[in-house]
Specification:
Elements lengths: L3 E6 L5 E6 L4 E5 L2 H8 L2 H8 L8 H9 L4 H8 L3 H23 L2 E3 L7 E2 H11 L8 E6 L5 E8 L4 E9 L4 E4 L2 H6 L15 H14 L10 H5 L17 H4 L1 H4 L22 H10 L19 H6 L4
Parallel strand pairs: 4-9
Antiparallel strand pairs: 1-2, 2-3, 4-5, 6-7, 7-8, 8-9
Helix pairs in contact: 1-2, 3-5, 4-5
Length: about 325
């Protein structure tokens, strides 16, 4: 590389006169890029050197990188390549790395109010207790819309794997754990949620059926609950009701069958005794009134009138 020394300016002031160590003279145009370089505006110098063929402005690219997006995602949104946006994204990525390193040297605030600790030291101490090196953690930072920075730490241990999230206050120089991964990473105890109660499906079914019986539902309970909740009905409830009697069945003629008179056997006289007269036996037999069977009354049937009531009418 040839070293040049400024020898002066041209008469019109638009060029610089440079001389090498061997005495060779060179000229350099004084333009906006040179003026930016002299002011120390390197970002402006990089933007001027790269032809813009992106749908995003350099300011938008840097804002999206500062907000936590990756160069690949921003290049896709800008419809260009990563190489073409890196001159704008590079300085912002360096800024994010600087903030993440500074946050590790800040104090970590604890809700319990115990003594202050350094974030990086707390993480290293806890990871050492689980046989993990602190250099395995990947730190990053990005800025929110309200100006505060978010610090992330991706870790992988045998007991737990995740990404911890902290809020970093640059003015106060302190960080606050925002999730369980962050609290675990610095060694704080995490409250274990109570185990859900074991559900007894059979007990739930019994309660639903008992409630249904109490409300008058037709559904019957199952198992042993049926003995206590439902009483057995009497046997008569399951029998068919007796059929209504027909008119022929209530008729006295059908109820009392005709009985033909039978002749009584003639008495046999014992030896030495006179034979009884046959006429007297016949007369005694004919004078006796005919036997009449009482009317049967079925269960639930109407009473059957007597023979006298049918022949001579009711006495009432």
């Amino acid at each position: 590389m040839v070293h040049l020394t400024l020898a002066g300016t041209s008469e019109d002031g638009k060029r610089l006169l440079l001389v090498s160590d061997t005495g060779e003279e060179f000229t350099l145009d004084v333009d906006s890029r040179l003026r930016s370089a002299l002011r120390g505006d390197t970002s402006r110098l990089g933007q001027l050197e790269i032809p813009m063929d992106s749908v995003l402005r350099p300011r938008d690219i840097q804002a999206r990188i500062r907000a936590g997006e990756t160069p690949e995602a921003v290049a896709e949104a800008a419809r260009t390549t990563v190489e073409k946006i890196m001159p704008f994204a590079g300085p912002v990525l360096a800024e994010r790395a600087h903030v993440a390193e500074r946050a590790q040297r800040s104090s970590i605030r604890r809700r319990s109010g115990d003594g202050a600790r350094i974030l990086g030291e707390a993480v290293e101490t806890h990871l050492r207790s689980v046989n993990v090196g602190a250099d395995s953690v990947t730190w990053d930072a990005w800025r929110r819309e309200d100006g505060r920075w978010v610090l992330t730490a991706a870790y992988a241990a045998q007991a737990r794997t995740g990404t911890a999230t902290f809020t970093f206050d640059m003015r106060g120089n302190y960080a606050v754990a925002e999730d369980d991964d962050a609290r675990w990473l610095v060694g704080d105890q995490i409250a274990t949620p109570p185990a859900p109660p074991t559900q007894d499906d059979l007990e739930q079914v019994r309660r639903r059926r008992a409630a249904a019986v109490d409300e008058g539902a037709e559904e019957l309970p199952l198992g042993d609950d049926a003995i206590h909740l439902v009483s057995p009905a009497p046997v008569e409830a399951y029998l068919e009701p007796p059929a209504a009697p027909s008119p022929a069945a209530e008729s006295p003629a059908a109820e009392i069958p005709a009985v033909a008179p039978t002749e009584a056997p003639a008495p046999v006289a014992e030896p030495g005794q006179p034979e009884p007269p046959a006429a007297a036996a016949d007369e005694e037999h004919h004078d006796a009134p005919p036997a009449r069977r009482p009317a049967r009354k079925g269960r639930g049937r109407a009473s059957v009138p007597s023979w006298d009531e049918i022949m001579f009418g009711s006495k009432d």
